[in-house]
Amino acid sequence: MKKELITLLCKKSFKYTEEPTFKLVSGRMSRFYVNCKPTTLSARGMFLTGHLMFEAIRDCDAAAVGGLTFGADPIAMATAFASELNGQPVNAFSIRKTQKDHGIVKWVEGDIRPGEKVVVIDDVATTGGSTVKAIERARSEGLEVVRAVILVDRQEGGLDNIRAHVADTVAIITRDELVDRWKKMGK
């Protein structure tokens, strides 16, 4: 499944150039561009991502999986669906970028309660900033973050930054794996 997902990411979500031409959120220029949404929102990509993410979290006794909207949302939903198919249900949740200012004011939406163990996920990590923000917001809602899982690690220090907040942090796919496949595909 992982090899197929890497190929799908290369077809739908990854771009690579010899010269830095892609502007990142930080303002830096990069030779790599990763937008996982075309993959994670496709039927096959959702299937592969959900199963691989579930495999990455199935041993940590988490009640739910989620992260900062919008990158983590399709992955969380696919993971919850795969978990049910595998007889080990894990709910999905979403963390807002801006706090709700009406009704019950909260950062996190989903079928979870304070004190429950959760896994925070993200589609891509460069510096890890959005994942760290999600971890902080989950904790502010009383959730116990037991693991962080990144779909694609750009290998630019993000995982180390996330590990400063959650020791158990892993990535499913690395930038090097994408570049290797990209080159083999003759892109």
UniProtKB/TrEMBL annotation:
Query: Do you know which SUPFAM superfamilies this protein is assigned to?
Result: PRTase-like
- Residues binding 5-phospho-alpha-D-ribose 1-diphosphate are 96-97, 100, 102, 122-130
Cofactor(s) of this protein: Mg(2+)
Q: Look up the record and give one Gene Ontology term from the biological process aspect.
A: pyrimidine nucleobase biosynthetic process
Keyword presence, Transferase: yes
Domain of life of the organism in this record? Bacteria
Question: Which terms are listed as keywords in the entry?
Answer: Glycosyltransferase, Magnesium, Pyrimidine biosynthesis, Transferase
Q: Which reaction does it catalyse?
A: orotidine 5'-phosphate + diphosphate = orotate + 5-phospho-alpha-D-ribose 1-diphosphate
- InterPro entries in UniProt: OPRT, Or_phspho_trans_dom, PRTase-like, PRTase_dom
Q: In which pathway does it act?
A: Pyrimidine metabolism; UMP biosynthesis via de novo pathway; UMP from orotate: step 1/2
General function of this protein:
Catalyzes the transfer of a ribosyl phosphate group from 5-phosphoribose 1-diphosphate to orotate, leading to the formation of orotidine monophosphate (OMP).
Identify its protein family.
Answer: Belongs to the purine/pyrimidine phosphoribosyltransferase family. PyrE subfamily.
Assembly: Homodimer.
**Name of this protein:** Orotate phosphoribosyltransferase
* Gene this chain is encoded by: pyrE
